[in-house]
């Protein structure tokens, strides 16, 4: 029979066992999850024994054509005792290029510090010119300061 637009809450339909039923073990409650799970496990063990005799069935065209998928990443689980520490792993192209780039940069910076690169020579020449200009400017300032001092002393006399 139809219930209409609104259904009642399921809490009204629950059945609770009385303490007497629990003691007697005659409660009308459903089996527990653990019991159901144990039964399912037993059924799986029985079915596994049967499956071992039958060849494995595959879906679709998997049974017709056997292909190694090169894009499929296979897990490589290696135990700690099987690891060969002496063997070096091969680096990928990107990793090798990155390492070469870092080494080239370090070499360049060493040459730069020693002043052997073109840029370092230009920088050193520029530095020498700036030092020379600053020395000349300082000398000129000293001369002007001395000239001013001399004028002040003459003006006081």
From TrEMBL:
Residues 1-157 are annotated as: Disordered. Residues 1-16 have a biased composition (Basic residues). Residues 79-157 have a biased composition (Basic and acidic residues). Residues 39-54 have a biased composition (Acidic residues). Residues 69-146 form the Casein kinase substrate phosphoprotein PP28 domain. Pfam families: PP28 (PF10252). It comes from the Eukaryota. InterPro entries: Casein_kinase_sb_PP28, HAP28. PANTHER family: 28 KDA HEAT- AND ACID-STABLE PHOSPHOPROTEIN PDGF-ASSOCIATED PROTEIN. This is Casein kinase substrate phosphoprotein PP28 domain-containing protein. It comes from Hibiscus sabdariffa (roselle).
